[in-house]
Specification:
The complex is a heterodimer of chains A (188) and B (682). With 188 residues, chain A is mostly helical. Chain A has helices at 16-21, 26-49, 52-71, 79-98, 101-108, 121-136, 140-150, 155-162, 166-187. In chain B, helix 13 runs antiparallel to helix 17 (613-631). The chains are: A mainly alpha (188), B alpha+beta (682).
């Protein structure tokens, strides 16, 4: 079930001395990190932008920005938090630029034909509708908190991404789950 | 964290929802975590809530897995390749630009060096000052040129970027020419299991007048294959009414492009490619760069739909653009056919944008059968024309979809707010009729709408209409809404002049600015009111068109589009009201401080579709009228300023109390099931 939930380690050995001495160049380091971290980041960004291609594009841009940071020898305290913050902001900005808020929400509810395992089409449709309604109960904040928590981020990291406090994150999470479940459970 | 030991220290207090989840996540402070654990051991109530939270987490995970995860991750191999290339380019450009930044700052000090004496020694002769300025301007030009040259270096791009750059490049090319006619020659090859044929195809596309002329050269000879009648009417259901036989390859190609939402008139256009690309999800894409034998550097975007592809659908498309200027030069399509896949290759052999006046007038002459000079004899029988448009009965549902789609598109390009554009339904088609100010606007609208099937576009510019009017009867178009509040003229006084003057004087120190501040103030107030009114009208028109019975006929996706449309109008309306209110209310409160809220309190609207639109429109109209009465010079004040102010504030109050309800109402699906339309406002 939670196969992709393997949390990222918080810190990576981003050895700036190595890089400046030239034993490993910044490009290699960033490429390695990209290869390793792409899947997790992709699944988070996908839920924001609704298209794997766009999500991939944004994740790559985030790593190009990471390269710039390394290049300018800026320390990054918490790489995982930093990356999620960058992709989150990129996705939100992109949504705003393309004014795609509507379509993003629509994507949330778009039928996903990969779903199987239903006894009948009708049952499946009913079930989908319930899921959609249960998701629709959540507001944006709650959804972002839940999705970031699923990715294994700590409350403080989530708070940093969303520019709020760790305490608020716990409230959003509790409220989000409750709303989600009241709908989900009732209809089951 | 609200667990605290009670007085006797025995049982800590119950845990809140956020404490429970924090406890599960190990996010409490160490002693809080300990207290919580002790409490949970002794409290059934909290323990069962804890397991409910755990349960919700599992449910959420399940739904996330099913609905919120990408259907399938694009493979990491190509992505990694693209990234490596992008990073290499990026890092090269970083290296190139950093010394440049230094140089700019050096130039900056040089620049300052030149300008400093200029300020100190005033009596420098004017022409030497001019020389210094010229030198400085030259410097700036050099720096900009250097930046342009350095940044012109083409970097690795994503699919989105490639399309965007190619579209921009093309638009720029057209903008550079007055009355642009795109003249393009293409080599077309069609190949399937039984046939292979190729021909050369020549297209003149007069973008200003939406005329298209085509010629082919194949074994049947060189000839015009179709001509466009001069009125700017396009029917996207048919490629053209071919007057001369169009070769099968082109007919088939047109069918394919049509069926895949691409534009048969602009076979190599990146916009057209993009429309198809957007319609495909999920898909796999990659951009590769290559250097041809002739030394030409090209980028190829390959798009492969990952889902099942139906008959006639594109199973793979490649768009090739020149790296140096992003100009598309080739397109290769693989199309699902009944007997295996069919391939179409389009290769551009020449392209230029010429101005209409420089073109041989014979090309767009009305002699539909006009032949090219080097005409060769009759066509062989097997090349006689086939029906161009695929024959399929158009059902009402198609037209419903087309209409909603057209409305949504018009809204996107801002063409549903008062421009005389209307949508007319007949039994067999949906027609968009419009009168627009400029040829650019017309081109924009046509570009936005032409991918919609079953849509007939009759869009004319004012110039075209007046030209036609000279020769024949005037066409029927809706005229502009009658009263347009005009901005005040200098010299006359506003009805609220004194009040406004006092109000603005308090806010700005300089009395000299008072007049312009006042003009600006009233102009803004009028603009917001007008904009709000346009939005209210747009909503009202939608509501009138889509009664509950009509809504029921729509399919879910059209319904969602319609909902989004209404939502967006309402949101803009709300925005303009909020801005106008923030601007106007503080200024007017002096005249009408009492009684503002009283009218609002006792009237609530029925917040249901489509009933809310009428009272909403009425209120916004009232608001617009009162704004005009107050802030227009020489508005032959039928109402006194104080009454107008009071009415205006009342309208604001009413809208501000109602709009949030309405917005909430339309936040989700509100057209779906009839019951959701019922509840009345408390």
């Amino acid at each position: 079930m939670n196969d992709s939930v393997l949390p990222l380690p918080q810190t990576f050995s981003l050895n700036f001395d190595d890089i400046s001495r030239g034993s490993r160049n910044a490009e290699e380091v960033v490429t390695d990190l990209y290869a390793k971290l792409r899947p997790q980041l992709l699944s988070y960004v996908y839920h924001l932008v609704g298209s794997t291609q766009e999500a991939d594009d944004l994740v790559q841009i985030a790593f190009l920005q990471l390269f710039d940071q390394l290049h300018q020898k800026t320390e990054i305290e918490n790489l995982r938090g930093w990356l999620y913050r960058v992709v989150h902001n990129l996705a939100i900005e992109q949504g705003r630029r393309l004014d795609k808020r509507e379509s993003l929400i629509e994507r949330w509810f778009s039928p996903n034909d990969a779903t199987v395992d239903a006894h009948s089409v009708e049952e499946e449709l009913i079930r989908r509708e319930q899921i959609e309604k249960s998701l629709a109960m959540l507001n944006e904040r709650e959804r972002h908190c839940l999705m970031l928590r699923v990715e294994g981020l700590s409350y403080q990291e989530i708070a940093d991404v969303l520019e709020t406090s760790a305490k608020s994150v716990s409230v959003y999470l509790a409220r989000g789950l409750k709303k989600f479940d009241s709908r989900y459970e009732n209809k089951k | 964290m609200k667990i605290r030991n009670s007085d006797n220290g025995a049982v800590p207090r119950h845990l809140d929802g956020d404490d429970l989840i924090s406890y599960l996540d190990g996010e409490l402070l160490r002693e809080e975590q300990e207290d919580a654990r002790t409490h949970l051991e002794s409290c059934w109530n909290c323990r069962s809530r804890l397991s409910a939270v755990q349960n919700s987490i599992e449910n959420f995970l399940r739904v996330r897995q099913e609905r919120l995860m990408p259907p399938d991750l694009p493979p990491s191999g190509p992505a990694l390749d693209l990234f490596t290339q992008r990073l290499a380019d990026h890092s090269a450009s970083v290296r190139e630009h950093s010394p440049l930044r230094l140089r700019i700052s050096q130039w900056g000090s040089v620049f300052r060096f030149f300008t400093r004496p200029l300020k100190l020694e005033n009596p420098i002769p004017a022409n030497s000052r001019l020389m210094v300025r010229t030198a400085a301007a030259l410097l700036v030009t050099c720096i900009i040129a250097a930046l342009v040259i350095l940044s012109n270096r083409v970097t690795a791009v994503s699919a989105n970027e490639l399309i965007r750059f190619a579209t921009d490049a093309q638009a720029q090319q057209q903008r550079a020419t007055a009355q642009p006619v795109i003249h393009q020659k293409l080599q077309v090859r069609r190949k399937n299991s039984s046939v292979e044929e190729s021909l050369s195809w020549e297209i003149w596309h007069d973008t200003t007048n939406s005329r298209l002329r085509q010629a082919v050269d194949d074994q049947g000879g060189s000839r015009f294959i179709s001509s466009n009648s001069s009125p700017p009417i396009m029917n996207t259901n048919q490629l053209e009414k071919a007057s001369s036989p169009a070769p099968t390859a082109l007919v088939k190609l047109a069918e394919v492009l049509q069926a895949n939402h691409m534009d048969p008139r602009r076979p190599l256009s990146p916009t057209s490619f993009q429309v198809w690309r957007n319609s495909v999800e999920p898909k796999q894409e990659e951009v590769t760069r290559a250097t041809r034998i002739d030394g030409l550097e090209v980028l190829t975007l390959k798009t492969v739909p990952r889902g099942p592809v139906g008959m006639g659908g594109i199973a793979e498309a490649n768009l090739v653009v020149r790296a140096r200027d992003w100009h598309p030069i080739e397109e290769h399509l693989r199309v699902r056919g009944e007997q295996g896949d069919e391939e179409f290759d389009l290769v551009e052999t020449s392209f230029d944008v010429v101005t209409l006046t420089a073109l041989d007038p014979a090309i767009f002459s009305d002699h539909q059968t006009a032949l090219l000079p080097e005409n060769r004899p009759e066509l062989p029988a097997e090349l006689k024309p086939e029906p161009v448009a695929p024959v399929r009965a158009v059902v009402t549902a198609d037209l419903d979809d087309a209409e909603v789609e057209a409305r949504a598109t018009l809204q996107r390009v801002g063409a549903d707010l008062g421009e005389p554009i209307e949508i007319v339904r007949s039994a067999s088609e949906v027609e968009v009729r419009g009168l627009v100010n400029t040829a650019e606007r017309k081109a924009e609208l046509i570009a936005a709408l032409r991918h919609i099937s079953h849509l007939k576009l009759t869009i004319k510019t004012i110039e075209e209409v007046s030209r036609e009017a000279k020769s024949a009867a005037a066409p029927s178009t809706r005229s502009q809404p009658a009263e347009q509040p005009t901005s005040e003229t200098i010299g006359n006084k506003l009805p609220v002049h004194d009040l406004l003057e006092r109000y603005l004087a308090r806010r700005s120190a300089d009395p000299g600015e008072a007049r312009s501040a006042m003009e600006q103030f009233s102009r803004q107030a009028l603009t917001h009111a007008e904009s709000a009114l346009s939005e209210a009208w747009a909503l009202h028109r939608l509501a009138e068109r889509y009664t509950p019975a009509e809504v029921n006929r729509l399919n879910p996706s059209s319904r969602r589009k319609l909902e989004a449309l209404a939502r967006s109008h309402l949101r803009s309306l709300h925005l303009h009201i909020t801005r106008a209110s923030a601007l106007v209310k503080p200024a007017l409160s002096a005249i009408a401080n009492e009684s503002a809220g009283t009218i609002a309190a006792n009237s609530g609207w029925e917040a249901t579709w489509p009933k809310f639109s009428a009272p909403l429109l009425r209120t916004v109209q009232q608001l617009d009228r009162m704004t005009t009465a107050l802030f227009t010079v020489g508005s032959n004040a039928r109402v006194s300023p104080s009454i107008a102010a009071r009415e205006l504030l009342a309208a604001f109050a009413l809208l501000e109390s109602q709009l949030p309800h309405l917005e909430k109402r339309v936040a989700g699906e509100f057209l779906g099931n009839p019951e959701s339309l019922v509840p009345k406002q408390p």
